[in-house]
Design goal:
By secondary structure, this protein is an alpha/beta fold. The protein has helices at about 5-20, 35-50, 105-115, 135-150, 150-155, 165-180, 215-225, 265-275, 295, 300-315; strands at about 55-65, 70-80, 85-90, 120, 160-165, 190, 255-260, 280-285. It starts with 6 loop residues before the first helix and ends with a helix. The radius of gyration is 18 Å and the shape is globular. An 8-stranded mixed β-sheet has the order 1-2-4-3-5-6-7-8, sandwiched between helices. The mean pLDDT is about 95. The protein has one domain (about 50-315): Alpha/Beta hydrolase fold, catalytic domain (Rossmann fold, 3-Layer(aba) Sandwich), CATH 3.40.50.
Length: about 325
Protein backbone atom coordinates (compact mmCIF):
# COMPACT_ATOMS: atom_id res chain seq x y z
CA UNK A 1 0.00 0.00 0.00
CA UNK A 2 1.31 3.48 -0.89
CA UNK A 3 0.52 6.83 0.71
CA UNK A 4 -2.65 8.61 -0.38
CA UNK A 5 -3.58 12.27 -0.12
CA UNK A 6 -5.91 13.61 2.52
CA UNK A 7 -9.27 13.73 0.66
CA UNK A 8 -9.69 17.51 0.91
CA UNK A 9 -6.13 18.16 -0.24
CA UNK A 10 -6.36 15.49 -2.94
CA UNK A 11 -9.51 17.12 -4.34
CA UNK A 12 -7.70 20.43 -4.77
CA UNK A 13 -4.73 18.76 -6.46
CA UNK A 14 -7.04 16.81 -8.77
CA UNK A 15 -8.87 20.00 -9.75
CA UNK A 16 -5.57 21.72 -10.46
CA UNK A 17 -4.40 18.79 -12.60
CA UNK A 18 -7.66 18.82 -14.57
CA UNK A 19 -7.42 22.57 -15.15
CA UNK A 20 -3.83 22.25 -16.39
CA UNK A 21 -4.51 19.25 -18.62
CA UNK A 22 -3.62 20.05 -22.20
CA UNK A 23 -1.88 23.29 -21.26
CA UNK A 24 1.63 23.77 -22.59
CA UNK A 25 3.39 24.41 -19.29
CA UNK A 26 7.16 24.71 -19.29
CA UNK A 27 8.65 23.96 -15.89
CA UNK A 28 12.05 25.35 -14.84
CA UNK A 29 14.88 22.95 -15.46
CA UNK A 30 16.75 21.34 -12.58
CA UNK A 31 19.30 23.89 -11.38
CA UNK A 32 17.47 26.93 -12.80
CA UNK A 33 17.11 28.90 -9.57
CA UNK A 34 15.90 32.14 -11.17
CA UNK A 35 13.32 30.31 -13.26
CA UNK A 36 12.03 28.49 -10.19
CA UNK A 37 11.94 31.79 -8.29
CA UNK A 38 9.81 33.43 -10.97
CA UNK A 39 7.31 30.57 -11.17
CA UNK A 40 7.09 30.15 -7.38
CA UNK A 41 6.79 33.83 -6.52
CA UNK A 42 3.91 34.14 -9.00
CA UNK A 43 1.91 31.65 -6.90
CA UNK A 44 2.12 33.45 -3.55
CA UNK A 45 -0.35 36.23 -4.37
CA UNK A 46 -3.26 33.95 -5.34
CA UNK A 47 -2.48 31.60 -2.44
CA UNK A 48 -2.52 34.25 0.27
CA UNK A 49 -5.52 36.02 -1.30
CA UNK A 50 -7.56 33.22 0.32
CA UNK A 51 -6.81 34.64 3.77
CA UNK A 52 -9.21 37.01 5.53
CA UNK A 53 -8.34 40.70 5.72
CA UNK A 54 -6.88 41.98 8.98
CA UNK A 55 -7.76 45.68 9.34
CA UNK A 56 -6.74 45.65 13.02
CA UNK A 57 -3.13 44.71 12.22
CA UNK A 58 -0.61 47.52 11.66
CA UNK A 59 2.85 47.34 10.14
CA UNK A 60 5.98 49.48 10.50
CA UNK A 61 9.18 48.98 8.54
CA UNK A 62 12.71 49.28 9.91
CA UNK A 63 16.20 48.72 8.54
CA UNK A 64 18.66 46.63 10.51
CA UNK A 65 22.33 46.16 9.78
CA UNK A 66 23.37 42.70 8.60
CA UNK A 67 26.71 41.11 9.44
CA UNK A 68 28.30 42.63 6.32
CA UNK A 69 26.83 46.07 7.02
CA UNK A 70 24.02 45.84 4.47
CA UNK A 71 20.67 47.28 5.51
CA UNK A 72 17.97 44.58 5.77
CA UNK A 73 14.29 45.47 5.90
CA UNK A 74 12.33 44.09 8.83
CA UNK A 75 8.58 44.58 9.17
CA UNK A 76 7.02 44.93 12.61
CA UNK A 77 3.37 43.83 12.82
CA UNK A 78 1.11 44.50 15.80
CA UNK A 79 -2.56 43.99 16.53
CA UNK A 80 -4.53 46.95 17.84
CA UNK A 81 -5.22 46.64 21.56
CA UNK A 82 -2.88 43.69 22.07
CA UNK A 83 0.40 43.85 23.99
CA UNK A 84 1.25 40.34 25.22
CA UNK A 85 4.94 41.06 25.80
CA UNK A 86 6.04 38.21 23.51
CA UNK A 87 7.16 38.40 19.88
CA UNK A 88 7.97 36.18 16.90
CA UNK A 89 10.71 36.76 14.34
CA UNK A 90 9.51 35.29 11.03
CA UNK A 91 11.53 33.90 8.11
CA UNK A 92 9.40 33.56 4.97
CA UNK A 93 9.37 30.44 2.85
CA UNK A 94 10.76 29.98 -0.63
CA UNK A 95 13.32 27.19 -0.82
CA UNK A 96 16.27 29.53 -0.10
CA UNK A 97 15.73 31.21 -3.49
CA UNK A 98 12.17 32.61 -3.52
CA UNK A 99 9.72 34.67 -1.50
CA UNK A 100 9.98 37.98 0.30
CA UNK A 101 8.58 39.84 3.28
CA UNK A 102 6.28 41.68 0.87
CA UNK A 103 4.86 38.49 -0.65
CA UNK A 104 4.34 37.02 2.82
CA UNK A 105 2.66 40.14 4.20
CA UNK A 106 -0.89 38.67 4.17
CA UNK A 107 0.20 35.48 5.97
CA UNK A 108 2.12 37.31 8.69
CA UNK A 109 -0.84 39.67 9.21
CA UNK A 110 -3.06 36.58 9.51
CA UNK A 111 -0.91 35.09 12.27
CA UNK A 112 -0.80 38.38 14.15
CA UNK A 113 -4.55 38.79 13.82
CA UNK A 114 -5.15 35.27 15.14
CA UNK A 115 -2.75 35.41 18.06
CA UNK A 116 -2.35 39.06 19.01
CA UNK A 117 1.40 38.41 19.18
CA UNK A 118 3.66 40.90 17.35
CA UNK A 119 5.70 39.51 14.45
CA UNK A 120 8.92 40.78 12.93
CA UNK A 121 9.20 39.59 9.32
CA UNK A 122 12.79 39.63 8.03
CA UNK A 123 13.38 40.29 4.34
CA UNK A 124 16.55 38.22 4.25
CA UNK A 125 18.60 38.08 1.06
CA UNK A 126 18.24 35.10 -1.28
CA UNK A 127 20.48 32.68 -3.12
CA UNK A 128 22.07 32.35 -5.64
CA UNK A 129 22.94 36.04 -5.37
CA UNK A 130 23.72 35.68 -1.67
CA UNK A 131 24.76 32.10 -0.91
CA UNK A 132 25.95 30.22 2.15
CA UNK A 133 25.15 31.52 5.60
CA UNK A 134 23.91 34.95 4.45
CA UNK A 135 20.23 34.03 4.83
CA UNK A 136 20.66 32.89 8.43
CA UNK A 137 22.94 35.83 9.26
CA UNK A 138 20.37 38.31 7.92
CA UNK A 139 17.65 36.66 10.00
CA UNK A 140 19.88 36.60 13.07
CA UNK A 141 20.43 40.34 12.57
CA UNK A 142 16.67 40.78 12.99
CA UNK A 143 16.71 38.66 16.15
CA UNK A 144 19.63 40.63 17.60
CA UNK A 145 17.96 43.95 16.77
CA UNK A 146 14.78 42.90 18.55
CA UNK A 147 16.73 41.82 21.65
CA UNK A 148 18.53 45.18 21.64
CA UNK A 149 15.28 47.14 21.21
CA UNK A 150 12.99 44.91 23.26
CA UNK A 151 12.09 47.57 25.83
CA UNK A 152 11.02 50.17 23.28
CA UNK A 153 9.06 47.56 21.31
CA UNK A 154 7.22 46.40 24.45
CA UNK A 155 8.77 42.94 24.34
CA UNK A 156 10.13 40.76 27.12
CA UNK A 157 13.53 39.52 25.82
CA UNK A 158 12.82 36.20 27.51
CA UNK A 159 9.76 35.70 25.28
CA UNK A 160 11.15 36.06 21.75
CA UNK A 161 10.69 33.15 19.32
CA UNK A 162 11.83 32.38 15.79
CA UNK A 163 9.45 30.92 13.20
CA UNK A 164 9.60 29.98 9.53
CA UNK A 165 8.06 27.73 6.92
CA UNK A 166 9.68 25.56 4.26
CA UNK A 167 12.97 27.16 3.21
CA UNK A 168 12.27 29.78 5.87
CA UNK A 169 11.92 26.96 8.39
CA UNK A 170 15.48 25.98 7.58
CA UNK A 171 16.61 29.60 7.82
CA UNK A 172 14.80 29.93 11.17
CA UNK A 173 16.48 26.78 12.51
CA UNK A 174 19.87 28.08 11.35
CA UNK A 175 19.25 31.46 12.95
CA UNK A 176 18.32 29.67 16.19
CA UNK A 177 21.70 27.93 16.08
CA UNK A 178 23.45 31.29 15.62
CA UNK A 179 21.45 32.78 18.48
CA UNK A 180 22.49 29.98 20.82
CA UNK A 181 26.13 30.23 19.78
CA UNK A 182 26.13 34.02 20.29
CA UNK A 183 24.45 34.06 23.67
CA UNK A 184 20.86 35.03 22.79
CA UNK A 185 18.33 32.71 24.40
CA UNK A 186 15.24 32.23 22.26
CA UNK A 187 12.04 31.09 23.92
CA UNK A 188 10.93 28.85 21.01
CA UNK A 189 11.68 27.79 17.47
CA UNK A 190 8.57 27.09 15.40
CA UNK A 191 9.52 25.15 12.27
CA UNK A 192 6.80 24.53 9.71
CA UNK A 193 7.77 21.75 7.25
CA UNK A 194 11.37 23.01 7.40
CA UNK A 195 14.06 22.56 4.74
CA UNK A 196 16.99 21.35 6.83
CA UNK A 197 19.26 18.95 4.95
CA UNK A 198 21.15 19.60 1.70
CA UNK A 199 21.79 15.88 1.31
CA UNK A 200 18.10 15.19 0.64
CA UNK A 201 18.29 15.08 -3.15
CA UNK A 202 17.96 11.33 -3.81
CA UNK A 203 14.28 10.56 -4.56
CA UNK A 204 12.32 8.38 -2.15
CA UNK A 205 10.21 6.13 -4.40
CA UNK A 206 7.25 6.42 -2.02
CA UNK A 207 7.29 10.23 -2.17
CA UNK A 208 8.76 11.28 -5.49
CA UNK A 209 5.70 10.65 -7.68
CA UNK A 210 3.42 12.87 -5.61
CA UNK A 211 5.94 15.42 -4.31
CA UNK A 212 4.72 19.00 -4.53
CA UNK A 213 8.13 20.49 -3.71
CA UNK A 214 10.07 18.02 -5.86
CA UNK A 215 13.52 16.54 -5.48
CA UNK A 216 14.60 18.57 -8.52
CA UNK A 217 13.31 21.73 -6.81
CA UNK A 218 15.17 20.75 -3.68
CA UNK A 219 18.39 20.27 -5.59
CA UNK A 220 17.90 23.63 -7.28
CA UNK A 221 17.43 25.43 -3.96
CA UNK A 222 20.34 23.79 -2.20
CA UNK A 223 22.65 24.14 -5.22
CA UNK A 224 21.89 27.85 -5.36
CA UNK A 225 22.70 28.18 -1.66
CA UNK A 226 25.79 25.98 -1.51
CA UNK A 227 27.21 25.83 -5.03
CA UNK A 228 29.96 23.24 -5.37
CA UNK A 229 29.81 22.66 -1.61
CA UNK A 230 26.46 20.88 -1.95
CA UNK A 231 26.64 17.56 -0.12
CA UNK A 232 30.20 18.12 1.06
CA UNK A 233 31.29 17.61 4.68
CA UNK A 234 32.24 21.27 4.97
CA UNK A 235 28.62 22.53 4.85
CA UNK A 236 27.86 24.77 7.83
CA UNK A 237 24.84 24.17 10.08
CA UNK A 238 24.14 27.88 9.56
CA UNK A 239 23.32 26.91 5.97
CA UNK A 240 21.89 23.40 6.48
CA UNK A 241 20.84 22.90 10.12
CA UNK A 242 20.72 19.10 9.82
CA UNK A 243 24.53 19.22 9.67
CA UNK A 244 24.63 20.28 13.33
CA UNK A 245 26.41 17.89 15.68
CA UNK A 246 25.77 19.66 19.00
CA UNK A 247 22.06 20.22 19.67
CA UNK A 248 22.47 21.03 23.37
CA UNK A 249 20.88 24.24 24.66
CA UNK A 250 18.95 25.03 21.49
CA UNK A 251 15.54 26.65 21.95
CA UNK A 252 12.65 24.24 22.53
CA UNK A 253 10.91 23.45 19.27
CA UNK A 254 7.60 22.90 17.58
CA UNK A 255 8.02 21.01 14.28
CA UNK A 256 5.24 20.23 11.85
CA UNK A 257 5.47 18.31 8.57
CA UNK A 258 3.31 16.24 6.25
CA UNK A 259 3.60 12.49 5.80
CA UNK A 260 3.97 13.00 2.03
CA UNK A 261 6.47 15.85 2.25
CA UNK A 262 10.04 15.15 1.13
CA UNK A 263 11.12 17.04 4.27
CA UNK A 264 9.40 14.49 6.53
CA UNK A 265 12.39 12.37 7.50
CA UNK A 266 14.75 15.28 8.09
CA UNK A 267 12.12 16.95 10.28
CA UNK A 268 11.65 13.78 12.33
CA UNK A 269 15.42 13.35 12.55
CA UNK A 270 15.87 16.91 13.76
CA UNK A 271 13.27 16.41 16.47
CA UNK A 272 14.96 13.18 17.54
CA UNK A 273 18.32 14.92 17.89
CA UNK A 274 16.76 17.63 20.02
CA UNK A 275 15.18 15.00 22.26
CA UNK A 276 18.52 13.21 22.44
CA UNK A 277 20.08 16.11 24.33
CA UNK A 278 17.04 16.88 26.47
CA UNK A 279 15.62 19.75 24.40
CA UNK A 280 11.83 19.70 24.34
CA UNK A 281 10.24 19.29 20.92
CA UNK A 282 6.59 18.95 19.92
CA UNK A 283 6.43 17.06 16.62
CA UNK A 284 3.43 16.63 14.32
CA UNK A 285 3.46 14.44 11.18
CA UNK A 286 0.16 14.88 9.35
CA UNK A 287 -1.10 11.84 7.38
CA UNK A 288 -1.91 12.33 3.72
CA UNK A 289 -0.34 15.79 3.64
CA UNK A 290 2.24 16.96 1.09
CA UNK A 291 4.50 19.97 1.34
CA UNK A 292 2.67 23.26 1.94
CA UNK A 293 -0.65 21.43 2.15
CA UNK A 294 -2.17 24.28 4.15
CA UNK A 295 -1.66 26.70 1.25
CA UNK A 296 -3.68 24.38 -1.00
CA UNK A 297 -6.84 24.57 1.10
CA UNK A 298 -7.00 26.89 4.10
CA UNK A 299 -10.43 25.45 4.92
CA UNK A 300 -9.41 21.79 5.04
CA UNK A 301 -9.74 19.97 8.35
CA UNK A 302 -6.00 19.20 8.46
CA UNK A 303 -5.21 22.89 7.89
CA UNK A 304 -7.64 23.88 10.65
CA UNK A 305 -5.82 21.53 13.03
CA UNK A 306 -2.43 22.93 12.00
CA UNK A 307 -3.50 26.56 12.43
CA UNK A 308 -5.00 25.75 15.83
CA UNK A 309 -1.73 24.15 16.95
CA UNK A 310 0.37 27.04 15.64
CA UNK A 311 -1.92 29.55 17.35
CA UNK A 312 -1.68 27.64 20.63
CA UNK A 313 2.10 27.49 20.46
CA UNK A 314 2.54 31.15 19.48
CA UNK A 315 0.21 32.48 22.16
CA UNK A 316 1.98 30.39 24.80
CA UNK A 317 5.39 32.00 24.14
Amino acid sequence: MTFSFDPEIGAVLAAQAEMMAGMDIILPERGDALGLRASTDAQFGPIFAQLPETPDVDMRSFSVSAKDGTGIEVRWYTKAGSSPGSAVVYAHGGGMICGSAELYDPLVRYYVGLTGVPFMSVDYRLSPEFPGTTLAEDTFAGIAWLFDHAAEMGVDPGRIAIMGDSGGGGVAAAAAILARDRGLRLAKQVLIYPMLDDRNTEPDPHLAATAVWTYDNNYTGWKALLGDGLGQSSVSPASAPARLTDFASLAPAYIEVGEMDIFRDESVGYASKLWGVGVSCELHVHPGSPHAHDYMNFGAAVTTRCIADRTRVITAI
